[in-house]
Amino acid sequence: MKPISSKVLIILAFIAIYIIWGSTYLMNKIAVTELPAFFIATVRFLCASLLIFGIAALSGKKLSITKRQFLNSIFVAFLFMVSGNGLFVWALKFLDSGFTALLASTQPLFVLLLMRLIDKKRMRRKSIIGVVFGILGMYLLVSQRELIMDEDTLKGIVLVFVCVLGWSYASVFVSKADLPKNHLVSTGYQMGIACLMLAIVSFAIGEEWTSPLNWSSDVQWSMILLIVFGSLVAFTAFNYLLKQVSTEKVSTASYVNPVVALFLGWWILDEKLTTQSLIAAGILLIGVYFITSRKK
Fold it and tell me: What are phi and psi of 291, to 5 degrees?
């Protein structure tokens, strides 16, 4: 069988992080209405890591890891999955899935600023234009007074921004870090480590653990989709892209995901979809165009 070209793999990987991750906001929102946040993340990454290691082993991949790679995996797992996912799912208790996704769309702004601060990397003209559109879209979103007057809503917004900052730094770090070369193996270690840390947090704050047999059918299906597609497929694609294309291009998923999340939240959960939110989403997509269309 003819191997798939790297260009096709990159396109498929972008489709995965754009569309699949856009739908995970809906899946997490459904799950967190019934289950505690860190418990959800623990189960998700435990199952996903076992699946990933199984696939890697069956395909003959080496599962060995160096001390440096293991330490880097711990650091990345904490930022991506404990802070970036555990806290994020918790924030969904207080926010609509579409609104949360739009808040997360600030990630490319953080990435570009961190690359400027850490790597002294000069921002190109198109990147700057993309950032400007991103800020404008963000302003239109948060200026909707009726969405942010509630105290719980403000708590959720703060949690999202903490997640976004950690995720952004991890994205910059991973692009240069010494991690297992195989993306399945690298993802498996990150998720395996993360599920242990998430379980510790879950027990420490007294979350109640329940059997999947006692979950509603909606939650069961949401967890299956989160594990197989949100973790196994999309996160592996994400790690692959961080090694193949520029970090700021990968971070544009945070611009596209909200559009998917807004539509699904409105369609399935009857979440409020305002004209201003739609305009903000459109402006954010323009920012995607300018960031992704710049030349290396």
Answer: -75, -45
